[in-house]
Write a structure and sequence with these properties.
Largest sheet: 5 strands, antiparallel
Strand content: 15-25%
Shape: globular
CATH class: Alpha Beta
Bound molecules: guanosine-5'-monophosphate, zinc ion
Distance between the termini: 34 Å
Structural class: alpha+beta
Strand order of the largest sheet: 1-2-3-5-4
Radius of gyration: 14 Å
CATH architecture: 2-Layer Sandwich
CATH topology: HIT family, subunit A
Number of helices: 2
């Protein structure tokens, strides 16, 4: 937990969020500024600054996050139609919130493919 981290505050309930999934290690909630009809953020409750800061001990957690992404996709009904998962990392990657998060974008045929 980091005191000045927005996502740690969301985890602690100090900032409200529209939750989609929660367990002891992971939280998923709707993005406040959606970039697609469905825009969900999936975060570890452990404060990890970015993808560049993960450690060996995080391997299982990172695998689990992908399983939860699929679970959310199934429960919210967009698993069959498809979705895009994005991690912005660091300054050049456009990361604004310095707490590792996975964007799930869905609900339309997404354009602007970069890769
Ligand atoms: P980044 O640009 O760091 O990859 O993505 C950060 C995301 O967090 C942005 O899409 C932004 O809209 C979202 N965000 C920032 N502050 C809040 C907040 O207080 N609540 C929610 N639900 N999303 C937030
Ligand atoms: Zn944090």
């Amino acid at each position: 937990m980091e005191n000045d981290c927005i996502f740690c505050k969301i985890i602690k309930g100090e900032i409200p969020s529209n939750k989609v999934y929660e367990d002891e290690e992971i939280l998923a909630f709707y993005d406040i500024n959606p970039a697609a009809p469905i825009h969900i953020l999936v975060i570890p409750k452990k404060h990890i600054e970015s993808l560049a800061k993960i450690g060996n001990e995080d391997e299982v957690l990172l695998g689990k996050i992908h399983r939860i992404i699929n679970k959310v996709a199934e429960e919210k009904g967009f698993k069959e139609k498809g979705y895009r998962v994005i991690i912005n990392c660091g300054e050049d990657g456009g990361q604004e919130v310095k707490h590792l998060h996975f964007h799930i974008l869905a609900g339309k045929k997404l354009g602007e493919k970069i890769v």
